[in-house]
Design brief:
Length: about 180
């Protein structure tokens, strides 16, 4: 394992522990600032995610978004994500890595993405799960036009500096249960 890979693995392990503790102390009101922020993006195609394990829950924001909403579908390793249209009454089935995805539906191309993460810093960088799916996806979408990538996390997931590499795509905003962070970069 390279030095950067082991640094990221250690940072991930510590961040998972902080996220697990934060998850036990929070609830549905955690998405209030995210809902407020997304009101400025009414009508735009939004990508959310189906929260797994100890991820902060973005479903309250997805349910009230005024516009099409999609969730990520992993088609194969090493490829960008695609987003299948989601509604609160969509029939959901397990996808890759156990995340729920709509059983059927049209594909959408989001202009706003709620991005899950393990850790973040105030520069706008995130530590993900290590597969590079969101980095590839954001690079592809940004090549096609403006995109707003919003990291959504518990404030406890903040770290002083996320270890990064050239392929890491920065976030435009980070929303926690306490604040909206606008990275300066």
């Amino acid at each position: 394992m390279s030095d950067l890979a082991s640094i990221k693995a250690e940072a991930r392990a510590a961040a998972f522990a902080r996220r697990r503790q934060a998850h036990g102390r929070h609830g549905p009101k955690d998405a209030a600032l995210l809902i407020e922020l997304l009101a400025d993006h009414a009508g735009e195609a939004l990508a959310g995610y189906m929260p797994m394990r100890t991820e902060i829950d973005c479903l309250p924001a997805m349910r009230v978004h005024e516009g099409p909403v999609g969730v990520p579908v992993i088609e194969s390793p090493g490829t960008p994500l695609r987003f299948r249209r989601w509604t609160p009454d969509a029939v959901m089935v397990p996808g890759a890595f156990g995340a729920l995805i709509p059983e059927s539906g049209e594909w959408i191309e989001p202009r706003v993405l709620i991005v899950p993460l393990v850790a973040f810093d105030r520069r706008g960088y995130r530590l993900g799960y290590g597969g590079g799916f969101y980095d590839r996806t954001l690079a592809r979408l940004r090549a096609r036009g403006p995109v707003t990538a919003i990291g959504f996390a518990f404030s406890a997931q903040e770290m002083p500096e996320v270890p990064i590499e050239p392929t890491d795509e920065p976030l435009d905003l980070i929303v926690t249960e306490r604040e909206i962070i606008r990275p300066k970069g």
